[in-house]
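no rush on this but wanted to send it before i forget. theres a chain ive been looking at and ive put its sequence and its fold in token form underneath. please have a look and point out which stretches look like helix strand or loop to you. thanks a lot i owe you, the record is right below:
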Amino acid sequence: MKKLVLAALALLLISAAAASAASFLLPEPDKTGGPSALEAIANRASAEQKPFEKEELSEKELATILWAATGKNREPKGWTVPLAMGRDPYVKLYVLLKSGGYLYNWEKGGLIEQTNEKRLISSAVTQEFAKTAPCVVVFVTSGLMNVDEFNYIATGAMSQNIYLAAQALGLKTRFLASYNKVKIESSLALSPVAKITGVMVIGRQ
């Protein structure tokens, strides 16, 4: 009996260690500085269809981009984008990096590993310039009832915030119409009721 208890404890410790290694908190997003909102709007533009620089986004830049897209900006219910009936974000953000694929946890400001595929970006997008991006953001519906008609509205608002945040950070982004839907769904183990509503590449040019 004692051996069974010890074995169970060992498995719990291993699982906890694996979960810790697969998930990590991002730093606080940058909420000050940069150009004014109107300057960012005046200068926003899609990334050119040419290779991105190899430099990855810093954790601070990533935290700022993701918070701008779907973060809390006031209590008790307030978001950086409009959401139907004040619900929690019903469009999830997945992030593809050189180290794998992650789910953004807006409550804790962290990333939860979904896959450690190192070449996921190059197989998830189809255009050659997009394959060189160090970061890809995937918008995915959560499958909640009564908000289906609002999913694309939320995705549009989120993507526009990403454009403005990227401009403020000196980054370039582009909304893609072409991507490998089947590969993304399988690699991220998306639910059968989930639906991809958009994909964006982000980096430096």
About this structure: The beta strands are 23-25, 91-97, 100-105, 110-115, 135-141, 172-176, 195-203. Residues 1-20 have pLDDT under 50 and may be disordered. The domain at 24-203 is CATH 3.40.109.10 (NADH Oxidase).
